[in-house]
């Protein structure tokens, strides 16, 4: 009888062990299947700016490139959601289901600057970063008939004439505004911001003599420098883009100030890690694709990769740095 009981227990343990192995294998297969199943439909990449913007051009280049590496032959569709100082699109990304089908191509403006004003439902760490994709500096630009031929001449003038130099921005607290205020603080000078609604209006303001200068992106300044309308005095960023090596960085002039405009892909918080990896790998491969790099350089944008952790670190650092600048000029408390 005792032997019969022991034999029964042995058979039962073998059966249970077999079931456990089967369940484990099934679980592993299901996990593998989950990876291979994504995506089952097109991925939406939201851009919080209107058609024709620099961010949209970057998004379309990267979306097309990423489609080559997204599994299951699915597409990446760029959707423009402008408005609300470029926060409407970001808000939609923030509130979307974290399933990988809604992503955002956001910039330093949405990720680091706008949350500082306390008017958004999201803050600097409310998204799941996928990767940083591009970085561009900004250029201190004046009309070609301005009396300053060099940055040194301009600096000497503004030191002797506080608040006399006016520059056009696309709004208080914008990256344009921040870049000039960072320069003001580093050089212990005072210049005067004049705020407009769009980048086109800032260019018109300089051309029409309504302001004496502006802080412009390379792709905007390039066109007018080539036409002979504008002169670039300094690079307000951290590096020199290809073709602009002769423009001095502020740090080369002994000034500790640099403001770059970064752009990256983010998702709603809570995105599963396996799906995050699929998306990250596809966009990273796109950034490394020679054809994508060529297209980005054609619009004066440099691919600058950073992974999720490093990207979040940069977002947080700029959030803190720009917060101090905005406090110093009285835009926030």
Automatic annotation (TrEMBL):
Which family does the UniProt entry place this protein in?
Answer: Belongs to the UPF0065 (bug) family.
| UniProt keyword list | Signal
Q: Which InterPro entries match?
A: BUG, Bug_dom1
Lineage top rank: taxon: Bacteria
Name of the protein described by the UniProt record: ABC transporter substrate-binding protein
Q: Which PROSITE patterns match?
A: PROKAR_LIPOPROTEIN
Please state the span of the N-terminal signal peptide per the UniProt entry: 1-25
């Amino acid at each position: 009888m005792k032997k019969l009981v022991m034999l029964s227990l042995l058979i039962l343990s073998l059966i249970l062990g077999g079931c456990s192995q089967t369940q484990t294998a099934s679980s592993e297969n299901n996990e593998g299947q989950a990876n291979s199943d994504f995506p089952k439909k097109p991925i939406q990449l939201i851009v919080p700016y209107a058609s024709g913007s620099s961010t949209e051009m970057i998004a379309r280049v990267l979306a097309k490139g990423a489609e080559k590496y997204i599994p299951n032959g699915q597409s990446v569709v760029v959707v423009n959601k402008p408005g609300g100082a470029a926060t409407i699109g970001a808000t939609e990304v923030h509130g979307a289901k974290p399933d990988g089908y809604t992503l955002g191509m956001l910039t330093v403006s949405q990720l680091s600057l706008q949350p500082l004003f306390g008017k958004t439902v999201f803050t600097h760490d409310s998204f799941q970063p996928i990767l940083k994709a591009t970085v561009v500096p900004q250029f201190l630009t004046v009309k070609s008939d301005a009396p300053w031929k060099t940055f040194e001449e301009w600096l000497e003038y503004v030191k002797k004439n506080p608040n006399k130099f006016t520059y056009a921005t696309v709004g208080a607290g914008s990256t344009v505004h921040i870049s000039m205020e960072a320069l003001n603080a580093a050089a212990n000078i005072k210049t005067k911001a004049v705020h407009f609604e769009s980048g086109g209006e800032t260019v018109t303001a300089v051309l029409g003599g309504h302001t004496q200068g502006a802080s412009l992106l390379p792709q905007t300044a390039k066109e007018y420098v080539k036409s002979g309308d504008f002169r670039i005095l300094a690079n307000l960023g951290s590096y020199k883009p290809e073709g602009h090596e002769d423009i001095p960085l502020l740090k080369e002039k002994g000034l500790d100030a640099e403001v770059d405009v970064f752009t990256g892909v983010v998702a709603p918080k809570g995105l599963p890690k396996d799906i995050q990896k699929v998306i990250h790998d596809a966009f990273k491969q796109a950034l490394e694709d020679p054809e994508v790099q060529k297209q980005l350089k054609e619009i004066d944008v440099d691919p600058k990769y950073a992974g999720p952790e490093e990207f979040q670190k940069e977002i947080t650092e700029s959030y803190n740095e720009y917060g101090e600048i905005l406090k110093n000029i009285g835009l926030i408390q």
